[in-house]
Amino acid sequence: MTNTIVVTDRLTKRYGDRLAVSDVSLTVRRGEVYGFLGPNGAGKTTTLRMLLGLVRPTSGTATILGHAPGESGATARVGALVEGPGFYPYLSGRDNLRVMARYQRISDRAVEDALTRVDLSERGGDAFKSYSLGMKQRLGVASALLGEPDLLVLDEPTNGLDPGGMADMRKLVVDLAEQGQTVLLSSHLLAEVQEICDRVGVIAHGRLLAESTVAELRGASTLLVRAEPLELALAVSMRVAGDDAVQLTDTGVRLELPEDRAPELARALVEAGADIREIRTAERSLEDVFFEMTTDQEENR
Amino acid sequence: MSTATMTGRPAARSETRAVPTALGGLVSSTRAELLRLRKWPAVWVLATVWLLLNLTFAYIFNYVAYATGSSGFSNEGVAPESLLPELLPAAIPSVFTGGMPMFGGAIMFILGALAAGSGFGWGSWKTVLTQGPGRLSAFGGTLAAVGLAVVGVVAATLVLDVAASTLIAVFEGQSIAWPEFGALAEAVGGGLLIFGMWAAAGVLVGVLTRSPALAVGLGLVWSLVIENLLRGVGNLLSGVEYVTNVLPGTAAGSLAGALGAGGAGEPDGAPGVLTVLDAGPATLLVAVYLVVFSAAAALLMRHRDVV
Ligand SMILES: Nc1ncnc2c1ncn2[C@@H]1O[C@H](COP(=O)(O)OP(=O)(O)O)[C@@H](O)[C@H]1O
Ligand SMILES: [Mg+2]
């Protein structure tokens, strides 16, 4: 059994003149939650469609669980919710899953399990067309979970959910990850995935800009100090952290210093006679990183 | 918000999907499609409309005409007494396919177009094609399920015709003579071919347009209007005739005509029933159309992007 579940090599999709996805090479490893991040129109859905064999790449290749996209060996082991849930509106949620269970050749009991897992058992008998957007989305996840796939592909699964529903969805993904489920999760909401993803790939304008762990992408954590007088605080900070690791910002003095050296900094400030208003760790959010990255790319275009 | 939250915990005995073979995938896809077609009200509405049409035009109108001594539907000038033999069980083989080339065919076209075309707008094709069976197996399941639905409709038509004609025979005090088995089998086979061809045409146009509404519109315009217009032109211009003689509607109509659906002495009586082609070529042509429509739809499904 291999440890890479998905490998793509310069995957490209062109629609007429528009390059929807361009030379995307990414890797998803077994057991991880991989966040596929990018703004709307970045090419996330198109990439996922190519991985699922729904759309043929213009060039480049993809391998899923050792198979080409769309081969039974791949699709049978992948559960997917891509670009919104697609079901028969006249059937109940339960019957929709039963149809998919027939396709997968698994029993109706698995359907009940899947409905329970997304908290839809009670409304399972209602027609799909009567569902709220959130319920439709949950049914889509239930269908993706059906048959215990090796890889779960969720394309913006929190779309259309209220804040409570979003929290539930995140919890579901965390629970699945704890059980060792490999998840490929796309989102344009960076803040919401940074806590649940092991690794992320950042895509914008069809290009993969970066692929790494969330921590790596964010870089080292920094400490933010507000103390008076400012000149003194700046001088002490430079002594503790080194001249290059200190920056004066609108909010105060920013130090590239790990969190465990905060007490040392506080002592030094107090001994020097500065009045400390605040010392806190200030991690760059993925949002910041992402913003920098995409604006860099804009400039290079 | 819901009180319980999503847990993601699998039940103790969770089931894993297996990698299907091409044939295994076809069988499971057929079962899946049968389930969702069976639970689709539109399918029952279409089947019911056809059965009512068939009952009305094959039996009720003509029986009322006979009973009241007036001229029957599309039988103007025919003596009422000569209508009765057509309404008895022995005549089932000749009347069985009478409404099929045109009205029944249009309804089967709609069935096929809805079954194959709706999934694009709903996004259900996208879901189906990620379940495990390959594209050909999954689409083959839809073709097979539509085919079985057609078999069901033809069987129901037979049951209805037998019931109606037996009832009329009993009512009119006629002795019940059953049709010859060979002739009946030919009529049922002809009905299956005609309905199968139109349903396959519906599936193909549904896949081509990816829109059931557009497909149904195009199909109805084609089978009810364009073919008739072309045949009208074909009667005037000899060159066009070669084309109109091999159109799907001509083939289906000729097959029904060869089975005697037009009624004795008036072969072109029922709408859509023709005598352009002989039984052999008509049967062959309908069968070829059925296969070509299905294969073309399957190839399209296999090669096109599904978004
Ligand atoms: N079927 C299609 N035909 C033409 N252009 C498309 C098609 N699908 C996607 N695109 C274009 O490709 C780009 C990427 O789209 P998409 O993959 O849906 O982005 P995302 O999922 O990241 O929002 C967009 O510019 C979109 O307009
Ligand atoms: Mg998208």
UniProtKB/TrEMBL annotation, chain A:
User: Which keywords annotate this record?
Assistant: ATP-binding, Nucleotide-binding, Transport
Q: Which domain of life is it from?
A: Bacteria
Which residue numbers delimit the ABC transporter domain? 6-230
User: Which Pfam families does the entry link to?
Assistant: ABC_tran
In terms of SMART domains, this protein maps to: AAA (SM00382)
* GO MF term list: ATP binding; ATP hydrolysis activity
PANTHER family attached to this UniProt entry: ABC TRANSPORTER, ATP-BINDING PROTEIN
Q: Which family does it belong to?
A: Belongs to the ABC transporter superfamily.
Q: What is this protein called?
A: ATP-binding cassette domain-containing protein
